[in-house]
Amino acid sequence: MTVISIVVKDNQQSGLLTFFCMDYNVNMKEPELLIKIGVNIRALRTKKNMTQNDLAIECEFEKASMSRIESGKSNPTVKTLFKICRVLDVPIAELFKD
Predict the structure, then answer these.
(1) What is the spatial distance between Cα 26 and Cα 2, in angstroms, rounded to a whole number?
(2) Which one of 11, 43, 53, 61 has the fewest CB atoms closer than 10 angstroms to its CB?
(3) Are 82 and 92 in contact (CB under 8 A)?
(4) What does residue 30 show for φ and ψ, rounded to 5 degrees?
(5) Average pLDDT score over the chain
(6) Radius of gyration (Cα) for the chain, nearest Å?
(7) Which residues of 41-74 are buried (b: 16+ CB within 10 A; e: fewer)?
(8) What is the phi/psi pair of residue 27, to 5°?
(9) Domain coverage including residue 82
(10) CA distance linking residue 98 with residue 86, whole number of Å
């Protein structure tokens, strides 16, 4: 395992920085990581009793975009993941958990 540190600046709240670290299996291939992220988003969304469309609207995305993210067919930016986590009210590291 390798620890990867990422700093994300939230442009909507002046000066607020969110910092997180995660363990990332360097042997994991990109498709596996994207699927893991999508599965975790789906689980967190359903736990909040939200539909894909609900989450897409709150994030200001098209429903088709949310569907591609959840199915692992899209490589979302950190900014996109940050928006999703803000709506789901979870730390971004939750998306990378096993």
Answers:
(1) 7
(2) 11
(3) yes
(4) -55, -45
(5) 81
(6) 13
(7) bbebbeeeebebeebbeebebeeeebbbbbebeb
(8) -85, -10
(9) 28-96
(10) 20
Q: Bridge-partner residues for 5, per DSSP? A: 21
Nearest Cα to Cα of residue 45 among 88, 81, 98: 88
Helix (H, G, I), strand (E, B) or coil at 51: coil
> Is residue 42 situated within a structural domain?
yes
**CA–CA dist 58, 84 (Å, integer):** 8
Which CATH number is 47's domain given? 1.10.260.40
Q: What is the pTM of this model?
A: 0.76
pLDDT tens digit string along 32-79?
889 999 999 999 999 999 999 999 999 999 999 999 999 999 999 989
In angstroms, the CA 28 to CA 16 distance is 31
In 3D space, the residue among 27, 24, 42, 37 whose CA is nearest the CA of residue 74 turns out to be 37
